[in-house]
Hints:
- This protein is α/β, with parallel strands linked by helices.
- It is 39% helix and 20% strand.
- The protein has a domain at 45-194: Glycosidases (TIM Barrel), CATH 3.20.20.
- It is built from seven helices and 14 strands.
- The strands form five sheets. It has a five-stranded parallel beta sheet, covered by helices on one side. Strands 3-6-7 form a three-stranded antiparallel beta sheet, with no helix packed on it.
Amino acid sequence: MLEGKDTLSTQTQRIGLRTLEVVNKPDAQGESFFVKVNGVPVFMKGANYIPQDNFLPRVTDARYHKLFADMKEANFNMVRVWGGGIYENDIFYDLADENGILVWQDFMFACSLYPSDSDFLQQVKEEATYNIQRLRPHASLALWCGNNEIGVAINNWGWKDSYGYTDENWNKLLKGYDQLFKEVLPAAVTTNDPERFYFPSSPSATGASLKILPKVIIITGAYGMVWNGLKHSRQRSRAL
């Protein structure tokens, strides 16, 4: 920034040039969900990322560098920043850019229903706007996702009955869900990062009730048996 011949402030920023498209539309199997990079469909390989330490200040730059070195060694090309954690420090996204690892970025909502009063929604809008504007310059940033597992939980986890919600309260919570994840957050993305893909929740499915798995086209999902299968195996072993 100049005032006459005087420099008032400067900023240096790296850029990366690429095209990225999330293809999510009807197809012969039901509905597609895949990524094209520079016009080429790419099979995404990676994992969920959660904060590296319960005490965030203990995470050093060296640990971030080791994290991304491990991702490369494991042949990652995408990492998902999980919605139950944090919006990561700038170094995380800088290293993703440098190492060619795409970032699936959740907004920080997970596994619960949230308030929908005007004050809360305004705070969400401000927090989302700040982080969208902070992260949008990164070539590694692939997409925005509204939340982790709330959509599938509403349909499949029995929250209404287990928590004893009345019909009136439950319908109010569902309306609030739509306001937050289908109005406020997509509007923030459209305003501040209009070329990137947004969808409300993961995992998600289409085609039928989530309870009737043979008739469902899964769009995004998690294979829980990676750990549940081991747990059940140990339980069977103890029983024997």
